[in-house]
Write a structure and sequence with these properties.
about 325 residues, alpha/beta, Rossmann fold, Dihydrodipicolinate Reductase, domain 2, 2 domains, 6-stranded mixed sheet, 10 helices, about 30% helix, about 25% strand, globular
């Protein structure tokens, strides 16, 4: 009797990776065949114990190559890093192993922005092996880029895109708080920012992707990160410590701003939401009170993409995937 479901392997079993693995194991349309993470103390453990959910009797592998081999002809779900250059060797290994790749790597959402030559080479490698690679999630991958592109289908020329995502970090995982420097003093924040250690990866990629999806050709993208300081004690902070960040990416065409994306990640952030405005004919404004749930939405975005990439070849963006399921 033939086995049912697209074979998938999860590589990277941090908090998001484990959530992806749980959802993949429970999906009737996917078949979880392997999970790998080289972290000490994880490899060799029963996967169901790590996930706290049934996982088909699998054991966590320490070698991603074994997971790729098990998923040959299927899809590798990669949740290891935000950086394109760090993800690339593993992505190429999976492609050469006959697997498509769906990844949460933020810089792979639109790698042509900063890594054009490498992106073109990866596209050619995918075509040569008859597989596809796509980066997805909620941000980048939906809230600030795919959603504006979707709305642009029902308007005329889009002159400007303005999107705001406000997230209350009190309701999110600790790793995200560390990523934005919560608890640092301002001087330590500035130093860490100079080292490139802070901020949410992928916002510039989202700006370029939003522009492309709205039919706007951009010349450059600028990004800025500013700390939000606690004004009073609370949430484990003293006054003056970093409570979050305001991050902004702006895309320009012939010197004119055409996209502005604002991301607020802060403990106790007021009015969490996703808000989008298109300056177009007719103009559109959309608000999602409370915002799109980050981790859960990312998991579902990855799984839906895994179901769609098998019919496609090359290095893709989420704009190449079906608008619906």
């Amino acid at each position: 009797m033939a086995e049912v479901g697209i074979p998938v392997a999860v590589v990277g079993l941090g908090e998001v990776g484990r959530a992806i693995a749980r959802a993949a194991a429970a999906s009737p349309l996917l078949r979880l065949v392997a999970a790998a993470d080289p972290a000490a103390g994880i490899a060799g453990r029963p996967l169901d114990r790590l996930l706290g959910a049934p996982a088909g009797g699998l054991t966590v592998l320490g070698d991603a190559g074994q997971a790729i081999a098990a998923a040959r002809g299927g899809v590798v779900l990669l949740a290891t890093t935000s950086a394109f250059e760090r993800a690339l060797p593993l992505v190429e290994r999976a492609v050469r192993g006959g697997c498509s790749v769906v990844t949460t790597c933020e810089e792979l959402a639109y790698p042509w922005l900063d890594h054009e030559a490498e992106a073109e080479a990866l596209d050619a490698l995918c075509e040569a092996n008859g597989v596809a690679v796509v980066g997805t999630g909620v941000n980048p991958g939906f809230a600030l880029d795919r959603l504006p592109a979707f709305l642009a289908q029902v308007v005329g020329e889009v002159r400007h895109v303005h999107a705001v995502r406000v997230v209350d970090l009190a309701k999110r995982r600790d790793a995200l708080r560390r990523k934005v420097g919560c608890g640092l003093d301002e001087a330590a924040f500035r130093a860490a920012d100079e080292r490139g250690e802070l901020g949410h990866a992928g916002l510039s990629q989202s700006a370029a992707l939003a522009a492309a999806g709205c039919g706007i050709e951009v010349d450059e993208v600028e990004e800025e990160l500013s700390p939000l300081l606690a004004e009073e004690a609370g949430e484990g902070l003293r006054p003056g410590q970093v409570a979050g960040v305001h991050q902004e990416a702006r895309a320009f065409a012939e010197g004119r701003e055409v996209v502005r994306l604002e991301l607020v990640l802060a403990l106790g952030a007021e009015r969490p939401r996703d808000e989008l405005e298109l300056d177009a004919d007719p103009p559109l404004r959309l608000v999602v009170p409370g915002g799109i749930p980050g981790e859960a939405a990312t998991v579902h975005a990855v799984l839906h993409a895994a179901l769609a990439v098998g019919e496609r070849h090359g290095l893709l963006t989420v704009l190449d995937l079906p608008a619906g399921r």
